[in-house]
């Protein structure tokens, strides 16, 4: 009977140690996740706030240099959004919440198990002389307790795996979508009444792109977004002329611009 008592007590201690080890794991994990989550959230809020302030500050003077900061708001918004995406992909905030709830559930199971264990042991008149049925009942309690903890850990791990797969899939979709919007387009430049001019030169954003003697020119591999198109030419009397316009180029599409000199 002493062997049965020893076996029961050893299983009880092992189950308690297992629960305490899991609690310690989630406590340590939630601290690191909490630190990263708070840091990212704080930085994001700060950057979003700065994004609203920068446009109000057209420029400021640093020693003898004038620094224009009105467009830095766009950079702040981009950085804030990137931080939130990092938090979502690596799951700092969501893991923090999972660890808190899992730790609380294990703590509750442990307290309930310890209370139930005391009650069941009080019911035994002579604990030093456990019967086989009494030992089996107590061992079954420890096994059920360990199984419940394992199930909680399993559910938390499955939640992480599901979230990770979902984030990877969403990131892949975002990447594919971004690649689609970054595909180069093209520009067809049409010069009206081109017969009145000669020596055409096309500039994009201040850089010479092509020389041509014809009324139409195709510019390919142009990045999406707004571009300044400038046409330089000469009249029949060799007088220089120039005309500029801004054109929005769409990804993987041809844009047409007509320019009258």
The overall pLDDT average reads: 84
CATH architecture of the largest domain: Up-down Bundle
> Portion of residues in helices?
55-70%
> Briefly, what CATH class of the largest domain?
Mainly Alpha
Shape: rod-shaped
Q: Calculate the terminal CA-CA distance, rounded to whole Å.
A: 108 Å
What structural category arises from helix and sheet content?
A: alpha+beta
Task: Describe it.
The chain is α+β, with helices and mostly antiparallel strands. It folds into two domains: 2-181, Substrate Binding Domain Of Dnak, Chain:A, Domain 2 (Up-down Bundle), CATH 1.20.1270; 185-260, Sandwich (Immunoglobulin-like). Helix content is 58%, strand content 25%. The chain has four helices and nine strands, in the order αββαααβββββββ. It has helices spanning 2-53, 72-90, 92-122, 132-181; strands spanning 59-62, 65-68, 185-192, 197-204, 207-212, 216-222, 225-235, 240-249, 254-260. Helix 1 packs antiparallel against helix 2. The chain starts with a helix and ends with a strand.
Write the layout of secondary structure elements.
Layout: H1 2-53, E1 59-62, E2 65-68, H2 72-90, H3 92-122, H4 132-181, E3 185-192, E4 197-204, E5 207-212, E6 216-222, E7 225-235, E8 240-249, E9 254-260
Parallel strand pairs: 3-9
Antiparallel strand pairs: 1-2, 3-6, 4-5, 4-7, 7-8
Helix pairs in contact: 1-2, 1-3, 1-4, 3-4
């Amino acid at each position: 009977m002493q062997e049965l008592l020893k076996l029961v007590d050893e299983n009880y201690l092992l189950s308690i140690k297992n629960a305490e080890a899991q609690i310690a794991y989630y406590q340590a994990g939630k601290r690191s996740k909490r630190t990263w989550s708070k840091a990212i959230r704080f930085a994001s809020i700060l950057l979003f706030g700065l994004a609203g302030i920068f446009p109000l500050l057209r420029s400021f003077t640093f020693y003898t240099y004038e620094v224009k900061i009105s467009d830095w708001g766009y950079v702040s918004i981009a950085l804030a959004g990137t931080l939130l995406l990092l938090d979502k992909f690596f799951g700092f905030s969501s893991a923090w919440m999972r660890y808190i709830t899992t730790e609380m559930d294990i703590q509750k199971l442990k307290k309930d198990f310890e209370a139930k264990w005391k009650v069941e042991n009080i019911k035994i008149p002579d604990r030093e002389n456990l019967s086989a049925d009494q030992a089996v009942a107590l061992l079954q309690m420890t096994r059920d307790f360990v199984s419940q903890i394992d199930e909680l850990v399993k559910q938390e791990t499955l939640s992480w795996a599901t979230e990770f797969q979902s984030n990877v899939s969403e990131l892949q979709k975002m990447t594919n979508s971004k690649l689609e919007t970054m595909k180069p387009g093209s520009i067809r430049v049409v010069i009206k009444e081109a017969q009145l001019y000669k020596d055409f030169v096309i500039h994009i954003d201040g850089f010479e792109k092509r020389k041509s003697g014809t009324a139409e020119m195709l510019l390919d591999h142009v990045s999406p977004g707004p571009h300044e198109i400038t046409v330089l030419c000469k009249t029949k009397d060799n007088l220089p002329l120039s005309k500029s316009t801004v054109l929005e180029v769409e990804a993987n599409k041809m844009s047409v611009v007509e320019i009258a000199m």
